[in-house]
């Protein structure tokens, strides 16, 4: 980390982004007494608007603050019991949303409260993804937080840095922007070593040694360690992560192309996605003919016409193995469940609608969702 990255290897900040996730921590939204700090929030809202106008993107906000704001509203002093924390989050979440609605007006905001299961359980994942997509299509700004009033202990993600990385993944964001009170990653903790220098670019988040820090303030949950974890999750999925501080002005600066913090560069997106697909546990398998095997080797998608047999019980979006003459030649995410696929196997795409009553996809597995194996490779197993 002490050697600065070779500038030739650092791509410039993209001119355009399609979609970004902006994570705002409790310390950026509240004052020293844990009260909602409206001017700070409104400055952040303006910063997000400016950034999105400059980059041509839509934003999803991951906002903390519910616990602190609720605690202040109820006049509860620390430490809180678990039920008190749940109540504070329930009260604070409503106030938090009300203020985001005002700060982002005339845009409407949508509250999405997620928990671990919404990202890890496939059906709930697809559901959460649909809800986010629908709000974005309507020009609404989704504001995500953890469902703290009902998600406790092992049901919790626990910190909004990690939740923001998952959200970025869920909405297929181009960038994850984490706004915090420490402007990025430092070579050492700047609060303890005042001379510590900030790190402008991290080529590989995996190579950074995990800081043993505590949260930046008593109000927030994460510290730089959770931000680094978030950067690892997101960059592995091909999403560049920026940790910037402080507040609205850092977002305005980013709109001008100036990063007041640290850029964690992403792994190439397609390669990242395919590596992730290769790690998924297969729920079934399809056998293909020689024509399909040759087509896959040329990098094309798998069509129903090339499928000769279907084995297993799987659904849309599940990982399945593609087998030729008994050997696994690829793994991919299927567009058709096993029942539908058994009915359309061997057919030309123009017959899918006739047999199934509707055609959602031409491909059984789209090439972007297909990891082919070179001869001699084997798939990782779980
Ligand atoms: N979900 C928590 C809240 O809104 C914050 C978690 C975090 O700060 O990371 O209070």
What is this entry, summarized?
This protein has 382 residues and is α/β, with parallel strands linked by helices. The chain has 13 helices and 13 strands. The chain has an eight-stranded mixed sheet, sandwiched between helices. A five-stranded mixed sheet has the order 10-9-11-12-13, with helices on both faces.
Question: What this model shows, in words?
Answer:
- This protein is of the alpha/beta class.
- The protein is built from 13 helices and 13 strands.
- The chain has two domains: 269 residues, 3-Layer(aba) Sandwich (Carbamate kinase), CATH 3.40.1160.10; 93 residues, PUA domain (Archaeosine Trna-guanine Transglycosylase, Chain: A, domain 4, Roll), CATH 2.30.130.
- Helix 7 packs parallel to helix 8.
- The two termini are 33 Å apart.
- The mean pLDDT is 88.
- The chain binds glutamic acid.
- Glutamic acid (GLU) binds next to helix 3 and strand 4.
């Amino acid at each position: 980390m002490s050697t600065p990255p070779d500038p030739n290897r650092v791509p410039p900040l993209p001119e355009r982004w399609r979609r970004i996730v902006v994570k705002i921590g409790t310390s950026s939204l509240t004052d020293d007494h844990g009260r909602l700090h409206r001017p700070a929030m409104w400055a952040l809202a303006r910063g997000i608007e400016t950034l999105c106008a400059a980059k041509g993107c839509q934003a999803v906000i991951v906002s903390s603050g519910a616990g602190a704001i609720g605690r202040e509203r109820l006049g509860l002093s620390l430490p809180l019991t678990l039920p008190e924390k749940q109540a504070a989050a329930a009260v604070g979440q409503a106030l938090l949303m009300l203020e985001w609605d005002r700060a982002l007006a005339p845009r409407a905001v949508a509250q999405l409260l997620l928990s671990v299961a919404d990202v890890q359980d496939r059906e709930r994942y697809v559901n959460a993804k649909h809800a986010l997509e629908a709000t974005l299509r309507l020009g609404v700004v989704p504001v995500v937080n953890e469902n703290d009033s009902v998600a406790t202990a092992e049901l919790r993600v626990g910190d909004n840095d990690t939740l923001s990385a998952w959200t970025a993944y869920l909405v297929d964001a181009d960038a994850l922007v984490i706004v915090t009170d420490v402007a990025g990653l430092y070579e050492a903790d700047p609060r303890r070593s005042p001379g510590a220098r900030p790190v402008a670019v991290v080529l590989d988040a995996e190579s950074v040694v995990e800081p043993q820090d505590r949260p930046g303030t008593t109000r927030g949950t994460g510290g730089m360690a959770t931000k680094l974890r978030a950067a690892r999750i997101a960059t592995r999925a091909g999403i560049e992560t920026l940790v910037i501080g402080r507040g609205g002005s850092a977002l305005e600066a980013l709109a001008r192309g100036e990063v007041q913090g640290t850029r964690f560069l992403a792994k190439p997106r397609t390669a990242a996605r395919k590596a992730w697909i290769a790690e998924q546990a297969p729920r079934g398998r399809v056998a293909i003919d020689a024509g399909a095997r040759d087509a896959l080797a040329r990098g094309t998608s798998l069509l129903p016409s090339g499928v000769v047999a279907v084995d297993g019980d799987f659904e849309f979006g599940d990982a399945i193995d593609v087998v030729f003459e008994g050997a696994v030649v690829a793994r991919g995410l299927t567009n058709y469940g096993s029942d539908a696929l058994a009915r359309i196997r061997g057919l030309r795409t123009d017959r899918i609608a006739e047999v199934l009553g509707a055609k959602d996809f031409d491909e059984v597995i789209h090439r972007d969702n297909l990891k082919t194996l070179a001869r001699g490779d084997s798939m990782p197993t779980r």
